[in-house]
Each structure stands twice: as structure tokens, then as C-alpha cells.
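dumping the sequnces here before i forget
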Amino acid sequence: MKKPEPEVFGAHSRRTFLKSLGTVAVTAAASRAQSVAAELEKVNGEQTVGPGPVPVTLNVNGKPLKLQLEPRVTLLDALRNYSSLTGAKEGCDRAACGACTVLLDNLPIYACQKLAIEAQGHEITTVEGLAKNGRLTKVQEAFVAKDATMCGYCTPGFVMSLTALLQKNPQPSADEVRHACAGNLCRCGTQPRVLEAALQAAGVAAARTTHTEVMDYA
Amino acid sequence: MKAFEYATARSLDSAPQLATDNGHYFAGGNDLLGRMKDYITDAKILVNIKSLPGLDQIESGRDHWTLGALVTIAQIENHPGIKKVFPGLHEAAAEVGSQQIRNVATLGGNLAQHSRCWYYRHRDIVCLKKGGDTCYARHGDNRYHSLFTGNTCISPVVSNLGTALAALDATAIVRRSGKEARLSMSELYHRAWENPLAHNSLDPGDLILKVEIPTARGRSAYLQVSDKHAFDWALVSCAVAAQVSGGRLRRPRVALGCISPVPYQVEAANDFLDGKTLDEATVSKAADLVLANAQPLEFNGYKVPLAHALIRRALLKLKG
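..and the predicted 3d for all of it:
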């Protein structure tokens, strides 16, 4: 088990409490399973599971995450409330705001509108999985350099959308950045700096935008 | 969201069996999970259909292309062949949601999605579409609602792809009671025209397998106008398709979205356009014919000139 989290309410944090519950059950389940593959096969068979908790193994940031989840638990809920990965944020919980954006097999998706049980067998990357050996990625560095956050709640989502964009298209135009970010909302209004950060990360000359210009109107 | 059971279907025969007892097919899940979170739809079991074999392919052909129902909107948007052969379908796909949605949303789900009417989507309102006795939009805030309907419910169909595929005269192949049924886009939505409870003509257990798109109409276009510049449903959308030879339209089709419970088509307009060359007067007359029977309500009258402009612009795009 990981170290307890800093935000402790009474004896347990919400997450460590939930996590310890899950761990007990999963350890028991995992000892029965021959391997991750066998476990997956079992979960993916045609038999009906749920509505109670079932073993779910997620591949998050290159590591297996073994949980005990009801089928209704979303990927976002699994990450945030059944493990300690709170980088993906919950905003609308309706696939509308983009705060929960993670990569599924390198494609940006809304973790709030994906069932965790269905995300098994896929490579999931959260914002926690980007920096390697304590070194931020170019996108993350550019967000710092351009001060592209205000309250910061939407930032992980933007970072994931832009990470996916630059993987696919290393030198995007300003319009392509806007298209890639259309599914991420920032209520503080820092989109112009997000655009600047994206272009800096890509090594593309900064667009002629001002900080008061709203991205979509350019 | 209420708790539910979950199963992954491996064959076309087992999928409807697994879903028999208040089950719902589950692929991209964007529409379904949204409804379940708002307690509009409840399900005893979700049947994951993403592992059904052979439904995730885009197959090109001389006479028609076949798109599996599990093909994602992003795959349609990014397919270079579709962009070339069916530009209207490409344009419609590019306007669906955001990239996060397009990466998981499927063709079948886009066609079968439920109404976005805010009375229907309100968890505490039992409107006509949910089995109540009143369409609250009729005398309420109907700014996003239909100009045409065959029943009392005025919530419009919002599927971009349904509109584009109607103009391309595509056929949905639906698994129904163990057999394959072929439905034109008109047939796929007809029930929603006459029955306020219906969002489309699918029966429980029906599964859209694929869509066949004839290549006969070499030119196509799709335009929409939304409140937001991106990531929004259309206020009005318009798809057109035709073969153009010697500057003249052959077998033209115009379809409007978001102004009727079905992709709205008027045969008189299509007939009028057949054999015509594209100029301002012709496309304006065609738009008049499409909108002849519009019945605007208190707050959606703006959709009439909007639709008129979109029909004209989309048709003129066919000039190339």
C-alpha cells in the first residue's frame, strides 16, 4: 500500500479508506487468478457480472491497478476515489467539460463517461504518468512558462488533449490546437495562454493573439 | 447512476439474449451513460457490444461503401477515403461533439441517440416522450425544437450522421429477430415522426450492424450552425448530395437536421433540383420547397431563415 494521503479526515482519508477495502478483496481475488490474462479472460467472458463489485484490472501509467469495482463505476471514479490518482478532475460528469480527459491507447477520452470495467485491456495515461524521472514534458513545461493556468482545475485535461495532439501532429497550426481543445472548457478564461503554451511546446512561432482574445473568435 | 449488471456479448445471437431483461446495448456509451446518470433511462444490464466481430470495419467498394456500426466518429472523420468520396459525411463527423467524444462514440450510437430536448432530459419532468401526457416544449421554451413533426412531440433528431447519410441515401442494416432488415434513413427514423415515445424506428433488441452508402452521388456537403463555434449540437444542419455531370445535378437529395424528429427531406425539392444547374435562383427555390410546410413556434422561428441559408449554401458547395 502507498503511504496515506495528506488530506486525512479523522482516522482515514476517504480514498485510503476505500482503497483499503478494495485491496483486501482484490488480494483475495488475485491470489486465485493465475495471471492478469486469466483474470481478464474471466472478466471478459460472456457471463454476466455485477451489480456488486467485481475484480477490475486497469493498466494505468504502465502499471497494473487491481481494484474491486461495481460495473457502474466510471474510469474517473476508479482513478480518483478507488486509487490515489486525482490528476484527472471531475467537473460536469457528463462528457461536456473535459476536466477528466485521460488518454486511452494514446487517444484523449472523457474518463467520466467510460466505465472502468470497459477500460480493461487498454493503456490508460493520466497526467500523473507524463513526467518521467521528475522531468516535466514539453507541454507541461510550456504551461509553466506561459503561466497557462488560473485556478488550474481544467489544466490536466488541457495538458492531456495537447499531449495527444502533439503525438499525432508535432507542429500543429493555431486552428488545429483550437480544434484539439474544443472539448476542454476553462471557466477562468485562460485559453489564449493555453494556445501559446501549445505552440511553444510544439516549437511553432507564437500566434498573434493577445491575452484578452477568446480562442474561438480568432 | 443506479447499479447494473454487465456482460460482454461475443456473438450477434447472444447480444439480444443477454439484453432481454431490460438490457441496453453499450458501445461508446456517451448518450446512454448520460441518460442513466440523469435517471432518464434505467437498465438492469448493459451489454457491451464492442467485441462483436466484424462491425468495426470501413469497407470501400465501387458501388457502395460499408461502415460497421462500431466504427468511431473519429475514424470516419480521419478516413482519407471518406473525405474524398463522401465529403458531406466527413464534414458531419467532424462536427460531432469534441475529439474526446469522437474517439469513443460510434456510428451506431450516433444514429440511435435519444432526443436532446431539455424537457425530455430533465430528470424531474415526465413529458410526452417519457410517457406523460404533455409536451412541455410546445408552450414552453422551444428555441431548439422542430419546425416539422407528425405528432405532438416537437423534439428534433440531432444525429449529424443521420442527416448526412439521409442525403447520401444510405441504408442501415439492422439485426432484428435474428434476421437482417434493411432500412433507409427515412425508415430508420419514421416512427419518431408519428410516435411521440419513439426516438427512431428500432425495436427493443434491434441492433444496427452497418450502414451501406451508395457511391452514386459523387458530391456531398454538410453545414451546421450552432450556438457555440465548436462542440455543440446544431441549431439547424443541412446535408446535400448529388451526382454532378455537365454542371447539372442528378439524383440530388437535401436533408435537414435538428428541425424535425427525422432527417427532414422533401421529395418535391429533390425532384425540382434534378437536372438543374446550380445558381442562386435555383437553390433559393429549392429551399422554399423544403421549408414550405414549416410550422414555427414561439421561439424557434429563427430556424426558418437559418435553414433557408444553409440549404442554399450547402447546395452551392456542390458546384465544387
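Residues 20 and 209 of chain A are 49 Å apart (CA to CA).
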